[in-house]
Amino acid sequence: MPPVDTSATVAPIVDIRALRKSYGSNEVLKGIDLQIAPGEVIAIIGKSGSGKSTLLRCINGLEEFQSGALTVDSKPLLHRDAAAMRALRQRVGMIFQGFNLFPHLTVGKNIMLAPSLVKAKDAQAGEAHARALLARVGLTEKFDAYADQLSGGQQQRVAIARALAMEPAVLLCDEITSALDPELVGEVLRVVEGLAQDGMTLLMVTHEMSFARRVSNRVIFMHQGRVHEMGTPAEIFGTPQTPELQQFLSSLHD
Amino acid sequence: MVDFSLWDIVRNLLLALRWTVGLSLIAFIGGGLVGLLLLMLRLSKLPGAGVFVSAYVQLFQGVPLLVQLFLAYYGLGLFGINTSPWVAAGMGLTFYASAFLTEIWRGCVASIPRGQWEASQSLALNFAEQLRYVILPQAFKIAVAPTVGFLVQVIKGTALASVIGFMELTKVGKTIANATYSPFLVFSCVAVLYFVLCYPVSLYAKSLERKLHAPR
Amino acid sequence: MRIQLDFGAVLAEWPLLLTGIGWTLALTAAAVLVGTALGIACAWVRARGFGAELAPRWLQVVVGGYVELIRNTPFIVQLFFIFFGLPAAGFKLSAETASFIAMVINLGAYATEIIRAGLEATPKGQIEAAVSLALTRLQTFTRVVLPPALQKIWPSLVSQIVIVMLGSSVCGQISTQELSYAADLIQSNNFRSFEAFIVVGVLYLLLSFAVRHLLNWAGATFLFGRR
Q1: Does a structural domain hold residue B1?
Q2: What is the number of domains present in chain B?
Q3: What's C7-223's CATH class?
Q4: pTM here?
């Protein structure tokens, strides 16, 4: 992966400081500090329950955090401010494990809906844009199909196109291949790799270790609500420092 | 005692059937409108709205329809409003229907998977847009079958309006049964007429339900 | 115009109200016991997938006809038919008996559909396991199929029982001394119609609440709790 400029002169596109989140009395994020540079591809790995998805969902406001600061594109995250949250979600897109395509709309309409409502894109421009995005994910011919006529891999690629339609600066990927049959994983990963090469800032929670190793600039290992280890793929996968990471990596090869 | 032929009986019952149908439609449509308002109120997330609608539903579902009709009848009289059976029965059945319909529809909205809310939220749609373009279209499809099914309940409910003097099928039936001293025959005819009215609607609701769950 | 509400006059007639509550609960309890049994039997006849092949075709038609007839006609008409209509055919009934029979027949039809849904949701593997263990058909039905089915549909059944209890208010129309009849009696004495029905309405609300919670608890404790 080509190196990304993470020097201090470039403002981080996502800036997380001392983030804490609890569900009731259960603290799931115990103080996260993370700065993500524009164009960076970051893979987040860890056991289930380590807080990976929760962290991701905090960044686009699906989860509220109790203390700390989260800034996207130099704008702080303000949960109470509906306009600010709307602006945030135009900058930050999300792809879900369960795809969450809108079943009552065609593929094309799925992609066109948000731009037409939020960015007031007119129908013609919206359709052209949607077709272009579908071509980019390799599904040009599916413009008028419905979600239940597509395979899982195809649905996820549509979900990616839908998120890209809002032209976000950051894309959050929450275990986007975990619900797919193994033979369908590749087509989705190929699309994501293409996005990475085109310079999209990506934050991926993933179990696809070889993919993470190949595509990401940085890998973060989370353990019990904290960033336990962080480094380049070579460092994390090749020379894990802490016993927890070593144990995690060895458990993957059973 | 007047001699009634079978045709006389049936003819009078059929005439009374009009009022049954009329009252059913008024209650169903009126109840639907009020129910929709209540649904919007509940979804609006205004403080206290949820509690109010919940209490409203519990109230109308926990008191017999008969008592509700009596309350409408006597209550309207107290406030000096003209208590014609039409007004009392219409209002009583409308509020009764609104509570059940809003609860059915609430269930339909609640059954929309959370992922739909999250995906539309992540695409920067605001609450109104989420409802209008993503949630309600899906909820509507699910709601058609049980809503049609409830129409049967409303039709059966109109039979109780007879008790506050509304001249519908049951009341006319009772009157004719008394006049002809043939309750067995008359009430059989009444039952058949209700069946002829309700059964097709039940079948339609069932077929809608099947279509909803059929694989495409 | 000032509205004067006098609840005291209504509450003073509490013996009548108590009698009404007693009759309402008694009728409901009796109807629930017999009606549920009837519902289980009819559900077995109608359920597709197991045992139903045993029921003769004519029985399936009769039960089907019964269920659809009851579910598509008003309860008050069923009651009038039983109380006014049957004597003309030779069966003379007291108001209470007619009310009981009408409620049993009514609950039975609805219970049939509710329980049938529970029976049809039985995973096929359960029956295959029971058969492999050499259980008879009846044993399979009563010990393997019915308990989980009942547990699954219990909330729906409880709701239907509450509906039947509220429906018993109609029985006052043939002078059965249940709660709505008490209201009618009270208001004919003191002309406090609105107050009488408000009080009775509140009592029905409390009864619905109590019966629902009681039945939910009973189901969990006696039928399918973990011992």
Answers
A1: no
A2: 1
A3: mainly alpha
A4: 0.84
